[in-house]
Amino acid sequence: MSLCIITSPASAAPSFRVIDITVRDGVTLKGNVFTPETPGKYPAIIFITSWALPTLEYYVQAQQFAAAGYVVVSYTPRGFYSSGGGIDTAGPKDIGDLTEVIDWTLANTPTDPAHIGAAGVSYGAGMALIGSAFDSRIRAVAAMSCWTDLTYSLFANQTRHLQSAGLLWLSAELTGQPSAELRQALSSFFANQDLDSVIAYAQVRSAATYLDRINANRPAILMGNAYGDSFFGPNQLTDFFTRLAGPKRLELRPGDHAIAELTGIFGIPNDAWTSTRRWFDHYLRGVDTGIASENPVQLQLRGQSTYESYPSWSAVSTSTARYNLSDVYWWSDEGDLLTGSQTGWSKTILAGDDTLANGGLVMLTNGVEAITGEPPTAWIPGVNRSKAAVWQSEWLTSPRRVRGAPHLSLTVTPGNSGQTTVIAYLYDTDWGGTGSLVTHVAVTLRDAVAGQPQAVDVDFPATAYDIPSGHRLSLVIDTVDALYADKAPDFSTVSFSSPGNNPSYVSLPLK
Questions:
Q1: What residues does the Xaa-Pro dipeptidyl-peptidase C-terminal domain cover (predicted)?
Q2: Which residues on adjacent β-strands are paired with residue 374?
């Protein structure tokens, strides 16, 4: 593609003005624009604000980009704050709005039409991705804390994400005007009814649905997320990234939703925004920042400032360590994670109550890790063995460098109920019994029948975590976690087993 090369920032401070953009259905979107004062054509960036945040969200970053030689337009999507209409949740109306904002930008600013980018954090990130499928003028995207599959985000492994969806609904009611369609989808979601309509609503609002169109347009796409993102889990991004055909880059960091980008919103340099600047400078301004020649997968190790880079997602791990689940011994009420196979056992727990093993609070628990480097912990000896099943490995004689998505294969049998939920947690446990949460996953068996075993094969969310030598791996499985709306029924039981033809195991992808 052609490049608009600007070798130095604009000589004068950029001008700023508040704007109204009226779109095709009469809705007025509120926004602002920074424009370089020096005459000439400039690349443009369209910033779309996050869910429940106003246009001023990107004020500092927009000012800095404009000072470097960009036209920068920020706007609040329909339904939030003073923008008109109802919240469309990155639906067709929102994506049409983005195209009309680009039209306005070309008509009212000195924008070079061949060099337009779209960017945002969270809500804005998802819309920038989807928008690149429907408007070929978007040549570069920076999608920070983004989603690619809204069904997975709300409903991964058929388990409804209670806290994240609840926070979205509450903040929408407080800061905007939810559309009737959004209210109906959320009502059905929380009532656990007509979930097919919720899934249909979400699929329309997922970039993965339009991957072929994105690949046809070939924008340069930078995506970033956190290992512990409690809104938009990272596994959806790794699959999407692998199937992207154009220039691409994937960055994963410790923490939770939008935490990695937070300090940059206030103008404090951080890695996420530095990459965004380098990405746009290369693909919109034609400046060789070196980013295109680097490995496209960048992983920050948890608990460290160190990054590892890889040429592809499939190259992240080079081997697998498989731990088979043993029988749970009566004298310790826990089992072993073995390298050898053991089958023919069964372990039953009382379901419907939480234990010390849990995923914490949305945004807060994993968000603390991004700041302190310390993951959520649980004291493994204190986990109630009547309400959870526990397996532990031998003490490790060498580190286990987990890179990617661990996998769980398990046979689950509801004892006296049908639908049930199980939550599996992987811990790095030290000599004192303190387990640091490596990753966890919830699975709901919606078509389960009491007394009938059902196979569970599921990936944990991807991570980059080093389990030190001298520690051991702990697997805890219970049936309730406050993060999720689904749980095992009260006063029910759940059994875990390893039939001879279907051994239960955990596998770790390793570097």
A1: 277-506
A2: none
The answer to whether residues 342 and 284 belong to one domain is: no
Cβ neighbours for 261, distance < 8 A, ≥ 6 positions apart: 121, 144, 145, 224, 270, 272, 273
Final residue of a domain: which of 315, 350, 382? 315
Boundary-marking domain end, from 315, 332, 367: 315
* Residue-wise pLDDT tens digits, 177-213: 999 999 999 999 999 999 999 999 999 999 999 999 9
The helix (H) or strand (E) run that includes residue 123 is helix 123-134
Residue 333: CB atoms within 10 Å: 15
**C-alpha 482, offset from chain centre:** 19
**Please, what is the Cα angle at 55 between 54 and 57, to 5 degrees?**
80
Is 406 a member of any domain? yes
Q: Are residues 403 and 305 in the same domain?
A: no
Please check whether residue 195 is in contact with residue 188, taking contact to mean a CB–CB distance below 8 angstroms.
Answer: yes
Could you tell me the pLDDT band of residue 12, with boundaries at 50, 70 and 90? low
DSSP designation for 38: S
CA distances from 147 to 76, 125, 257, 429, 437 (A): 19, 8, 11, 31, 23
